[in-house]
Amino acid sequence: MEIITYPHPTLRYKSKPIKRVDAELLAIVREMFDLMYEANGVGLAANQVDLPIRLFVANLEADPDKGDEMVFINPIVSNPKGSEGDEEGCLSLPTLYGNVMRPKRVRVNAYNLKGEEIRIDIDGLFSRVIQHETDHLDGVLFIDRMSETAKVEVEDELDVFVTDFNSRRETGGIPADEAIVGRLKEWEDKYC
Q1: pTM for the full model?
Q2: For residue 155, what are the CA distances in angstroms to 16, 68, 89, 96, 146?
Q3: 188 given a catalytic annotation
């Protein structure tokens, strides 16, 4: 398992709700946390590890020895209040940062790995992380939420990601879109 980077097709794939949790999924979650910590991230969505399921992990401290490890299954974000801009980055767009306007406060409903419902009102960094990761599950990247002016400023950096992706695909490092979609369907049949 690895963190995929822009413009990998799975990053634009709308994830399907999870209907079951098994030992394999628990192992996947553990590996997602490990990858997130390795990359100094605070959140990681299943799309970012090339999986089409509605799940993300988060730890606001980005450290396994600090903070709380949280797993959100089938999250729904609602009740947006206020608005604030702040800089965001993404493990699937390493080294790229941009200002993004988001609701200041939201409610998240989800399930944890034990099947217990999570329903909390959140703000600050926690709110931003939840919104960012839920966007991933809907195939939305933070660059999609940047202003048109800000997008123009990062065009050259995005082009580098595209060139790198195309190069890896040409050398067989990334399969064709049809193969990716077929594999995603297998995962959906298993968990959704």
Answers
A1: 0.96
A2: 30, 36, 15, 11, 12
A3: no
